Every structure is written in structure tokens, then in C-alpha cells.
Amino acid sequence: xxxxxxxxxxxxxxxxxxxxxxxxxxxxxxxxxxxxxxxxxxxxxxxxxxxxxxxxxxxxxxxxxxxxxxxxxxxxxxxxxxxxxxxxxxxxxxxxxxxxxxxxxxxxxxxxxxxxxxxxxxxxxxxxxxxxxxxxxxxxxxxxxxxxxxxxxxxxxxxxxxxxxxxxxxxxxxxxxxxxxxxxxxxxxxxxxxxxxxxxxxxxxxxxxxxxxxxxxxxxxxxxxxxxxxxxxxxxxxxxxxxxxxxxxxxxxxxxxxxxxxxxxxxxxxxxxxxxxxxxxxxxxxxxxxxxxxxxxxxxxxxxxxxxxxxxxxxxxxxxxxxxxxxxxxxxxxxxxxxxxxxxxxxxxxxxxxxxxxxxxxxx
Length: 364
Description:
The protein is mostly beta strands. The chain is 4% helix and 40% strand. A hairpin with a 2-residue loop joins strand 22 and strand 23. The longest helix is centred in the last third of the chain and has 14 residues, at 315-328. It is globular. The chain starts with a strand and ends in a 6-residue tail after the last strand.
């Protein structure tokens, strides 16, 4: 964690940086190169000792497809444990940012992981993978809150059929930077992707991101890809620096707080804002802590043929994806259960398809 003190901002330019403002829906609306974005914030209760909620709390839910948020949480497609049992993907990437709680990953390559508490998993589905994402309730003596973002990032045509794999960004390794304005109020930026600069610094002088997977759109220098979370203290002011690339687009998702101003234009919580990416924009927070997600990138600019978990460039490729999955199941499912859970311990780990096991730095 580094801290930079920044001076008061100069007067905002007359041209508005705000291109559009839309209410946050479910899922959140995205722009190329992003396909999908969702924010799960579930106040799960105490666990029943079998990684799920007590059976009495499941009454009135549409089990197998529960998005009700009854009592502040959902089971999603889980039957006993909340989450998303085995399902396929092809032709894009998932970026899963887990701010609270734990996710158990299992896939058709035989890989598995438990991650959370600020960790990020960046999964390149490529030519096809089946994976499960379960939300085990590990604590039986207290609630099990879970908060995460899942972002779908498209792959360009020449990468859609690459070999699938995942990359872990452990929380301890993810760059974070705190900017303090001239009134002493802080803005924290968590950098998942995209180099961050401070006013008066060259890009990358402050925070360099971890490397995206090699076949990702984000690994191409001209993609100008950035994924950041922002947290502003009440009254904080911070200048979001202009993007680098020609044709880059960016969106801010204002998901917690009350009111914020973008170069003086007020926006209330629960809205997304598409901004001009070629201009600095001053964020001035209101009287409550504010949190935003920023997604930015140069569009891939290719046709998109999508049906559910398959994202290709043509209808014929889409039909081929369904046929390949019907025929091969993308390698089959090597787990005894469609919704595997990796034990009772909170310890995070990632076991890759090649047998290599990694753990976050604090766990050795």
C-alpha cells in the first residue's frame, strides 16, 4: 500500500465528461470488450455444518434457480450449498473479484481452488471448460457474508479456441494505492488490471498491475484494459486519470454510497455512468463513503454471437460450440459431485490442472 498527497483540482473543463447515465440492473450493462457484470452481495446465515444454510431457511425458495434475495441472500443454482454447480463456457473469460467470503472452484480439467477475501480468479475459458463456483458457508457460529463481482471479458476471434486455464491474483499481491486530497480525505484504488498513474506522475510510476493471462485481450498493450475498484471517504476528491488508448471506452458503476459528482455533475448511487475516456475526471464524494467499480478497454470490435455460456463470432461457430459440448462435455466432469466443496478450512489454495498447487503468500 502506498499513499500520495494530491493538490486541489483545478476548475473542471466546460465539456461534460458524462456520456450516459443508466440505473444499475441485474446484470449490470456493459460495453465492448466486456460482456457481462454482476455484483453478488449475500448476507448468508450461519452454516449447518454441511456448508449450506439450515434446511428451514430454504422454504419458499425456487430451489435450483433461486435469485430471490429472501432474507438478504440467494441459493442461485445450488441445491444444498449456494452457488453455481457445473456449467460450461467457451470463447470468453471470467474475472471473479471476491471481496468477502469464499468461493470453491472446480473444473473439467481436474483443477480446483478456494479463494476470497480480496482474491481474484481470472479464468480463460478458451475452447471450452466446465466449472463450478460454490459458496460454502464455513462458519457454524456466525454469519457467512459473501460479496463478489463477476465480469465476463470477451476474447478476440484469434484467441477463442485457446487452451483453457486460470490465473490467481492473491489479495496480498494486488496493487492498492491510497490518494489523499488537500483536506486529508482518502480515496483507495484497487488495481485488478491497467496501470495507474497519479497526477504529476507518468503512467505506471505509481501502481503496475499483475499480468493478465497470456491469451487475454488484456494482455495486448493496445487493449488499454483496466478494472479498478474505488473507495472514497466522505467528502473526498480524486481525479480519475484519462485513458491512454485511442478509442478506449470506460464505465463507472456506483454501487455503494449516496451521491457523487463527476466534474460537478451529480450522480446518485445505483447508477452506471459511461465517461469520456480521453479526459481526466474529478470525482467529488458526498457525505457517505462511496464505492465504485471501473471497467475500461478498447473495444475488440468484432461480431458477437452469444447464447448463454458460449460466446463466438458467428452463428455457425455457436452451433459448433453446442455440438462440441454435447459430444465431448469439454473433457467431462472428474468430480463425484456437480457442486464440489473443498473441506471445512478457510485456507485458500489453487490446484492447477498440471498438478501444481499454489497458496497465497501468507499461507506459505
